[in-house]
Amino acid sequence: MEIPKRSGYVVVGAGIHGLSTAFHLAQELEARGLGSGADVVVLDKAGPGAGASGIACGVVRNNYFQPAMSELMQACVEVWESDPAAYAYNPVGYIALGAAVQEDDLTATYERQERIGYRSELIVGAAEVDRHMRSLFPDWRAKGVTICLHEHQGGFAFNMDSVHGLYGKCKEKGVSVLSGIEVTGFRDASDGTISAVETSHGAIEVGEQVVIAPGPWAKHFWALLGLPERIDIRTPSGDVVRDQPMWTYWNLQEGEITVDPLVFSTADGGAPPVIHLDTDAPLYTDEGKLITDELWGIYFKRDRHGVQGGASPLVVEGDVELDPYPQTTDVDPGFPDMWCAALSHAMSRFEGCRAHYKQARSGGVGAFTADNFPVFDYLRPNLYAILDSNHGYKMIGVGREVAKVLVGEHSALLYPFRYERFQTGDLHPVSSSPYPWS
Ligand SMILES: Cc1cc2nc3c(=O)[nH]c(=O)nc-3n(C[C@H](O)[C@H](O)[C@H](O)COP(=O)(O)OP(=O)(O)OC[C@H]3O[C@@H](n4cnc5c(N)ncnc54)[C@H](O)[C@@H]3O)c2cc1C
Q1: CA–centroid distance, residue 186 to ligand 1 (Å)
Q2: In the predicted model, is pLDDT for residue 432 greater than 80?
Q3: Whose CA is nearest to atom 37 of ligand 1?
Q4: Measured between alpha carbons, how far is residue 64 from residues 41, 347, 403 in Å?
């Protein structure tokens, strides 16, 4: 395949972030009279959606305890809402249900959402939550839930469809998206900038800037750029925790039950919000076998073939062979029993759903940073990195912010995600959620 010898902007990775950046950059260049989409090339060693974006459950929510995540997500939801058809976005809303231990976090999240104008409501107290959920799902029966954050924005999008939507927008703007081109290295200029991107098909000279959006391959690119595998982290209290791994891998456990999707409808026959249920009520299978009596959680949504969702991810020890992606073999063998029991715990309509469980092409590995939050930052004077710590299919608006940064603007939304935070102690607050991403 022919690749250009030179390009103004080289974007590595054709996932949600690479494509969103390329599209928005093309818009910015045009609007400012600085160029056009023809100055942008996106390279992917496989093709659009070959990474995490192509297997993401697609949940779009703003249930974040961290102010910076919440504000950034609000901007992302704005992008989803800007073209629901192209992005295959279903604005069905999102419900987070929690146990007593999560009340303070969810209340703080709700209060911030109120302040920033993100539409949601908070329901507190076991009886009140039960009433709210039964008004939507008359067979709701989950126990141990004392708080409910019902976000009226957000929902979910169909993973590959939204990737194709972005790909189409890139093509319309004249961006070249090249598949089957593996980036193998970067050529350094004497001033520390990147002068060329080396690929399996030859080098591309860089006119202006490089953006890397490699998803789970973040650690590989970190090493290519000569950045440290282990770092010291200053905590907000000033203590320094030494020698921490910059990257760890988690295996996201997801699955689906193949049922008539309409089985999962609201009382009035409408499309159900995405549901995330955490509770400390004991969890039993339909046959009465105890699965756990500790805090557990699941999420689920209506899909084209039934109901899809997941549970808390598993830490993967050591390094992971990412290719071919995704690696779904390490899923906890107990996951299907747990997830189906949890669905049945939530609503009686799911009783017996274990028989319909299907191990689909879902689940997979994510690369997480040392504090489990994204790094959005320049790692070289002309190389910007979108390393989303697996938060990010929902973060379609990050590319819009990055595009502004590339043309010289400051992004207050991206600033809290700079790499320097590990040195300065400007870390994000940690919630009581059992998930590494809430
Ligand atoms: C199972 C699972 C479920 C998830 N569910 C959700 C969810 O419900 N909601 C949500 O918001 N997020 C979810 N996520 C997280 C989300 O999928 C990711 O954070 C996001 O898709 C990352 O997007 P990206 O564009 O950075 O990376 P990717 O989509 O992974 O794209 C990176 C691309 O880079 C390419 N690439 C890699 N190395 C090279 C190289 N050397 N040269 C050229 N190209 C290269 C790859 O082929 C790939 O196409 C989930 C993740 C997983 C694994």
Answers
A1: 21
A2: no
A3: 214
A4: 33, 26, 24
Write out residues with Cβ below 6 Å of ligand 1: 12-18, 43-46, 50-53, 55-59, 182-183, 213-217, 252, 254, 362-364, 366, 386, 388, 390-394
Instruction: Note the pLDDT tens digit of each residue in 399-414.
Output: 999 999 999 999 999 9
Question: 48 to each of 179, 180, 225, 355, how far by Cα in Å?
Answer: 7, 10, 24, 34
* Contact (CB, 8 A) for 63 and 57: no
pLDDT, one tens digit per residue, over 158-174 is 999 999 999 999 999 99
Structurally, the chain folds into a number of domains equal to: 1
Residue-wise pLDDT tens digits, 28-85: 999 999 999 999 999 999 999 999 999 999 999 999 999 999 999 999 999 999 999 9
Structure token digits, residue 299? 């999420």
Distance (angstroms) between ligand 1 centre and the Cα of 374 equals 13
Question: Helix 398-406 crosses helix 67-82 at what angle (to 10 degrees)?
Answer: 100
Residue-number span of the structural domain to which 186 is assigned? 1-89+155-228+372-438
Does any domain span residue 395?
yes
| Nearest to 249, CA basis, from 215, 279, 225 | 215
Has residue 324 been placed in a domain?
Answer: no
The CATH number of residue 386's host domain is: 3.50.50.60
Distance of CA 172 to the CA centre of its chain: 26
Q: Does residue 168 belong to any structural domain of this protein?
A: yes
Task: Tell whether the model's pLDDT for residue 216 goes beyond 80.
Answer: yes
- Indicate which atom in ligand 1 lies nearest the CA of residue 59: 8
Å from CA of 384 to ligand 1 middle: 17
Residue 83 domain flag: yes
Nearest CA to 154 among 235, 61, 253?
61
Using most ligand atoms within 8 A of CB, pick from 45, 87, 391 the residue to mutate for ligand 1.
Answer: 45
